[in-house]
């Protein structure tokens, strides 16, 4: 119920992770249809980059204003910080405090006087500004880092690399918020360079009891994890997509015109293959380099047909091998019989 500086930076990190999820799943999913030339009606989803910008903007973000207050000469208090935030961020649609509500002629008694509220992707969160400045300035002084480095212990040197005299700098140490921002930026660069797979864990109840499902709790998690938008995009789009070459190589045995070899282009081969199968036209879309299949049921049917065809081909190969062995055995026996008969007639 009481959220301070720690929860603020945690929620900031969660917003950045949600932004990665949105960009790499929902946005990339829809952009692929455009790249492939597929007819597509875009599905609207909330892009939380506006919230990330509110927090991390280099000149007008909350973290930037917090750093300014920490470095400002004179008396600094939660009230001066809140006034600064109201002045700079008050016009943002995702930020509110008592003063900004008064300016909009809104009155919310649930919002304390020394607090601001951010409309996060997962919902509204109220932060008490008391302690923000002190916790943001909770720095490790340079001489302490250098003392740890001077101990010449490998572990201590690994924990305090900034104490290395070679890397000594006269600049002020980074504030806690700036360190979190830099750490999150490094994490984002690492994630964007990968091909992520997402596993979403849903907590079924608050008491950790087995076989108990709390629908309200589950629904709230589904909403703030962004799963509803993901389902809408997946439903409106295509469940399966693959390049023409691998698709043709896997399923060409299902069509007599593409099996065992296809002389034309890969796309023409896939179109010929699917035209010979009882697949509805609405289930298929042909892009510039990929074939798209809308329903998983259609893909399962293709796999079932392929398994049946593989069994038929295996039976055919077995029959051919057995026939070859029988013919070879028969020819050897016939050759031996002719040889024996010739020797017998010669002896007679």
From TrEMBL:
Signal peptide: none annotated. Residues 1-307 form the Myosin motor domain. SUPFAM superfamilies: P-loop containing nucleoside triphosphate hydrolases. GO terms for molecular function: actin filament binding; ATP binding; calmodulin binding; microfilament motor activity. Belongs to the TRAFAC class myosin-kinesin ATPase superfamily. Myosin family. Gene3D superfamilies: 1.20.5.190, 1.20.58.530, 6.20.240.20, Kinesin motor domain. Residues 184-206 are annotated as: Actin-binding. This is Unconventional myosin-Ia. The lineage of its organism: Eukaryota, Metazoa, Chordata, Craniata, Vertebrata. SMART domains: IQ, MYSc. Pfam families: Myosin_head. GO terms for biological process: actin filament organization; actin filament-based movement; endocytosis; sensory perception of sound. It comes from the Eukaryota. GO terms for cellular component: brush border; cytoplasm; microvillus; myosin complex; plasma membrane. Keywords: Actin-binding, ATP-binding, Calmodulin-binding, Motor protein, Myosin, Nucleotide-binding, Repeat. CDD domains: IQCD.
